[in-house]
Specification:
Layout (H helix, E strand, L loop, with lengths): L2 E5 L3 H12 L3 E5 L3 H8 L10 H10 L3 E4 L2 H5 L4 E4 L14 H12 L5 E5 L7 H12 L6 E5 L9 H6 L3 E5 L3 H10 L6 E5 L1 H32 L3 H9 L20 H14 L5 H25 L6 E5 L14 H11 L3 E5 L4 H7 L4 E2 L3 H5 L4 E4 L11 H7 L4 E4 L6 H6 L3 E3 L13
Parallel strand pairs: 1-2, 1-4, 2-3, 4-5, 5-6, 7-8, 9-10, 9-12, 10-11, 12-13, 13-14
Helix pairs in contact: 1-3, 5-6, 9-11, 9-12, 11-12
The structure holds nicotinamide-adenine-dinucleotide.
Length: about 450
């Protein structure tokens, strides 16, 4: 059992804290809001993540997991301090490190025993050295510390599984002993551990996210070519993905990537590259393709409907992907803005993201079911592929719409079946219909 402090109780911090407690450690999670801490003690979580509520409750009751707003309480006995605060995009696309800076200074002032400071936030290359400088500048006691970069690779929606079953653990530090000590904390997970230097570990995280975003933009570009030439991108992806050198993951053509990581991380790496004399032309193309993907949907629907003025458009799903309530950089946001700017009225339903969406998209009508969204609508856009959208009574939906136009933004429906039910079905790169028209 180790004593651990985790700063930040978002998707990464809370999952890290709860899972490390579940592995038998004593974890204190520090965050700035008393309300959040009090709620967490009552089992009310600030985020939605499948399975997290149960694991938080279990470990809180077992007194392995604590919540506080006090850094003093968090750091009092800690041997490891995890920084898991947000690193959002700044105005130029750079990573905003203000939370990390603030956190490092707060830690420094309270260091009373030797600690390993673990950076889990995704940060620009060189930040680990800079965190060490901040600690040295602000520390009051002459205490030894080491900084280890330990980037997180979990996916929202399956975060607990991913934390407990990682493909690898990446640790980067100038202090090999500290990295080894941290590696021991992860031994119950029985996975490959890569120990490297600080900057390389930080770069591994950015390179991984940028590669995944590239894979999605690549298949979206293929989808657009398929659409022009009458091939089906679903089959193309299946054919490509069966090649072990390529692999099937992240080959789903659709409305493009969004969320709290890919958009900001691709932007941040492009920014870091450009400010260090490199020319990140591929990263720029990856972002451009992603943005165009949403514009194409709006354009294709406009061609069908003639105009958006006065039309009712229904959105199925709002979160950037299924099984999360995270609305950060969700494709739905841009879609709504484009639709509203052209005079459409937008309605939407999402199983868990509507509360978050209401803060970002206050002007749309929120419905209590997919059927209510469809009632009298001129078109439906499937935005996030929640499982519950896969088994809907599509006949009922088609009949209830003013005009049964279905834009399948994630290619989850069978074009032929949808057409047989009376839909004017459009997908992403699904080839031609029997009359040679793009689907
Ligand atoms: P989040 O916004 O969900 O959580 C950030 C947390 O930090 C919040 O609880 C916030 O209140 C807290 N915080 C901010 N400043 C603080 C301070 N000074 N003191 C105490 N608490 C503070 O963010 P997230 O999604 O958990 O991401 C955190 C980091 O992990 C980011 O760098 C992100 O890029 C990275 N990451 C995220 C994911 C993901 O899927 N969300 C996956 C891997 C890595």
């Amino acid at each position: 059992m180790k004593n651990i402090c985790v700063i930040g109780v978002g998707y990464v911090g809370l999952v890290t804290g709860a899972c490390l407690a579940d592995l038998g450690n004593r974890v204190v999670c520090v965050n700035r809001s008393k309300e959040k801490s009090d709620n967490l003690k009552k089992g009310i979580l600030p985020i939605y993540e499948p399975g997290l509520e149960e694991i938080v409750r279990r470990n809180y009751e077992a007194k392995r997991l604590e919540f506080t707003t006090s850094y003093d309480e968090g750091l009092h006995e800690a041997e490891f301090v995890f920084i898991a605060v947000g690193t959002p995009s700044g105005s130029e696309g750079e990573a905003d490190l203000s939370h990390v800076t603030q956190t490092a200074a707060e830690i420094a002032k309270r260091l009373v025993r030797p600690v390993v400071i673990v950076n889990k936030s995704t940060v620009p290359i060189g930040t680990g050295d800079w965190v060490a400088d901040i600690i040295n500048e602000h520390k009051v006691n002459d205490v030894e510390f080491a900084v280890v970069s330990n980037p997180e690779f979990l996916r929202e929606g399956s975060a607990i599984y991913d934390f407990m079953n990682p493909d690898r653990i990446v640790l980067g530090s100038t202090n090999r002993q500290a990295a080894q000590k941290l590696a021991e904390l992860y031994t119950p997970l029985q996975t490959t551990t890569i120990i490297t230097d600080l900057r390389t570990a930080e770069m591994i995280k950015y390179a991984s996210n940028c590669f995944l975003a590239t894979k999605i933009s690549f298949i979206n570009e293929m989808a657009n070519i398929c659409e022009a030439l009458g091939a089906d991108v679903l089959e193309v992806a299946r054919g490509m993905g069966s090649d072990k050198r390529i692999g099937p993951a992240f080959l789903g053509a659709g409305l493009g990537w969004g969320g709290s990581c890919f958009p900001k991380d691709v932007k941040a790496l492009a920014h870091i590259a450009a400010t260090h004399g490199s020319h990140p032309q591929m990263l720029r193309a990856v972002m451009e393709i992603n943005y165009d993907q949403r514009k194409r949907v709006i354009q294709k629907l406009r061609e069908i409907l003639g105009t958006y003025r006065g039309k009712v458009i229904g959105l199925l799903g709002l979160s950037f992907k299924p099984n999360t309530d995270d609305m950060r950089d969700a494709p739905a946001i841009e879609l709504v803005h484009m639709l509203e700017s052209e005079g459409a009225k937008v309605r939407a339903y999402d199983p868990v993201a509507m509360n978050n969406a209401k803060r970002i998209l206050p002007s749309i009508v929120y419905c209590d079911s997919p059927y209510a969204v469809a009632e009298g609508a001129d078109a439906l856009i499937l935005v996030s592929e929640w499982n519950e959208f896969k088994q809907l009574d599509m006949q009922r939906i088609a009949r209830s719409m003013r005009r049964p136009v279905l834009f399948d933004g994630r290619n989850i429906y069978d074009p032929e079946k949808m057409r047989a039910l009376g839909f004017d079905y459009r997908g992403i790169g699904r080839g031609y219909d029997a009359n040679g028209q793009p689907l």
